Amino acid sequence: MKVFEAPSWWLGERRARALSGQTLGLVPTMGALHEGHLSLIRRSRAENDLTLVSIFVNPAQFEYRTDLTHYPRPLETDLARLRAEGTDFVWVPREEDLYPDSYRYRVTETERSTVLEGASRPGHFDGVLTVVLKLLQIASAEHAYFGEKDWQQLSLVRGMVDAFFLTTTIVACPTIREKDGLAVSSRNRRLLPEERTRAPRFYQVLSTAPTAETAARDLQAFGFVVDYVEDRDGRRLGAIRLGDVRLIDNVPLEAAL
Ligand code: AMP
Questions:
Q1: For a substitution probing ligand 1, which of 26, 29, 117 has the most ligand atoms within 8 Å of its CB?
Q2: What is the distance between the alpha carbons of residues 82 and 27, in angstroms, rounded to a whole number?
């Protein structure tokens, strides 16, 4: 497994690999890897000759400096996991590698990035799209793997790929859940024991309530603070808070009805 920082090193390597006909899958992450991330890597390994995993905690998508500085960065554990999965390349760019423009240029989506998650986190998706565009451009992969867990992110990335005629195919991967249904997330570790016991109700209610309104009401009755529950484009999407922790999830609507 080769670990590198500089895009210039990768560009040479990628050219040589492409000339010898090897296909590439990119898995963009912010590290603190768990089973959700590993499922994307396994899918990429099954569908490509080579897999490149990027680890970059992207400053542009954080609204608050403290969230950025507190984001977990267990690099050595992550690298051990990636090695065990048979990852070929791990790219850990430095900030200046990805933002030589000092954040002067950015991708802005004007309609669907300002609702749901975007309403609670202004500018978040511009930050996400900007870094994903840079990662896709440099990686030059045939496929890039994204989780359905972050449904709005996935659909905005797909929209950007279409809008800018990018050549990487975006592959959507199903949400990995704990046995009790809670979507796997690094935030789950921050739940207090009592909150962790209640948390699976989020998925259960999203999946079973007859309407988004009843889902929101039921979630409030269980003591969650509801940021939103909305049915859109065949999905039911929700965000709730338990204590300090904000959780998001979504289910296909046919499962919810
Ligand atoms: P992150 O490191 O949070 O930026 O996530 C990197 C990728 O992993 C994104 O495409 C996420 O949607 C995906 N991901 C995170 N959690 C899960 C999960 N529980 N199941 C499937 N994919 C996930």
A1: 29
A2: 11
The label of the residue with tokens 């972050």 reads 150
pLDDT at position 254? 83
Q: Is the dihedral of CA 159, 59, 73, 237 positive or negative?
A: negative
DSSP H helices, 140-211, are: 151-163, 193-198, 200-208
In degrees, to the nearest 5, what angle opens at C-alpha 123 toward C-alphas 121 and 128?
100
Which of 149, 153, 154, 202 has the most ligand 1 atoms within 8 A of CB, as the residue to mutate?
Answer: 149
Say which DSSP state 26 is in: E
Which structure tokens are listed for 221? Answer: 């009755």
Task: Say which residue the tokens 């960065």 belong to.
Answer: 73
Rounded CA-CA distance 117/112 in Å is 10
Query: Measured in Å, how far apart are the chain's first and last C-alpha atoms?
Result: 45
User: Is the pLDDT score of 164 beyond 90?
Assistant: yes
- What pTM, to 2 d.p., does this model score? 0.97
Q: CA 161 to CA 7: how far, in whole Å? A: 21
What is residue 257's predicted lDDT score, i.e. its pLDDT? Answer: 54
Q: What are phi and psi of 108, to 5 degrees?
A: -120, 130
* Buried/exposed code over 192-202 (b: 16+ C-beta within 10 A; e: otherwise): eeebbeebbbb
Residues in the chain, how many?
Answer: 257
Task: Tell me the torsion sign for CA atoms 186, 187, 188, 193.
Answer: positive
